[in-house]
Design goal:
- This protein has 8 helices and 7 strands; from the N terminus they run ααβαβαβαβαβαβαβ.
- By secondary structure, the chain is of the alpha/beta class.
- It has a single domain, classed as Vaccinia Virus protein VP39 (Rossmann fold).
- The protein has a 7-stranded mixed beta sheet with strand order 3-2-1-4-5-7-6, with helices on both faces.
- Helix 2 crosses helix 5.
- The chain is globular.
- The structure holds S-adenosylmethionine (SAM).
Length: 226
């Protein structure tokens, strides 16, 4: 099968010149936007079974239709996975919303990560698969490393893996993580069996795929993982 997804185009040729200033600002001043009630309700509901399930917790943030959550949960039966996406339409498309070791949750990560970090959650793995790239320079704050809740993403810890077809996204993420003392590895890779719909589309379109891995909070070498 072939697809014709266009490569990401951006006026940026390297990391955004204001990247570290923005990250520093978000570290210095916690994000104060009130948590939306529907996100709080989703978190409270999720917290009830996450805290009774004794398995280590993994997040698949921006999970889209949740296909990756189901695949990862089957690959790692010793862990419990939460797939999080803000789109109810996407979450209802793939299959069951839950299984023995995963649950799909409708929530905005901007609120969910804050609530999870404040509740002291510490993750085993955190997957960010093909987050929206927001390639316009003016949209830096919409990328995960430019987000006001980037410090909470780091605080949640665990083995982070972010995948994209836009290498500059990972370059910026690596620089931002480095600023917070977190070592990350970036590399090109290929897949035989895509984890997500976007991974399949980009592969079929002939795009090079890129991934970044890091052990947030220090500890193990991300290259030892898998
Ligand atoms: C490019 S899609 C990737 C979906 C999936 N990971 C894949 O690879 O097929 C990005 C997803 O992020 C979700 N999203 C964007 N911003 C979000 C936010 N702040 N909180 C939760 N989900 C968000 C969108 O609804 C969309 O499903």
């Amino acid at each position: 099968m072939s697809a014709n997804s266009k490569a990401v185009r951006s006026s940026q040729n390297g990391p955004h010149p204001r990247l570290l200033e923005i990250v520093a600002r978000h570290v210095a001043k916690p994000f104060e936007r009130p948590i939306a009630e529907h996100n709080r309700a989703a978190f409270v509901e999720t917290q009830a079974y996450v805290e009774t399930d004794r398995r280590p917790l993994c997040l698949d943030s921006f999970c889209g239709i949740g296909e990756s959550t189901a695949i990862l949960a089957a690959r790692y039966p010793q862990y419990f996975f939460l797939g999080i996406d803000q789109s109810a339409a996407r979450l209802s498309k793939h299959g069951p919303l839950r299984s023995d070791n995963y649950q799909l949750v409708r929530a905005d990560v901007t609120d969910f990560w804050r609530l999870a970090a404040a509740a002291g959650w510490r993750l085993e793995q955190h997957w960010l698969l093909y987050p929206n790239p927001w390639p316009k320079a003016a949209h830096l704050l919409r990328r995960v490393h430019g987000s006001p809740v980037f410090p909470q993403l780091v605080a949640l810890g665990g083995r982070l893996e972010c995948r994209t077809n836009w290498p500059l996204y990972l370059h910026e993420l690596q620089v931002a993580l480095g600023y917070l003392g977190q070592h990350a590895v970036r590399e090109a890779f290929t897949v035989d069996s895509p984890l997500t719909a976007f991974e399949a589309k980009y592969t079929q379109s002939g795009h090079q795929l890129w991934r970044l891995t890091a052990s947030l909070g220090g500890g193990n070498n991300p290259e030892d993982w898998e």
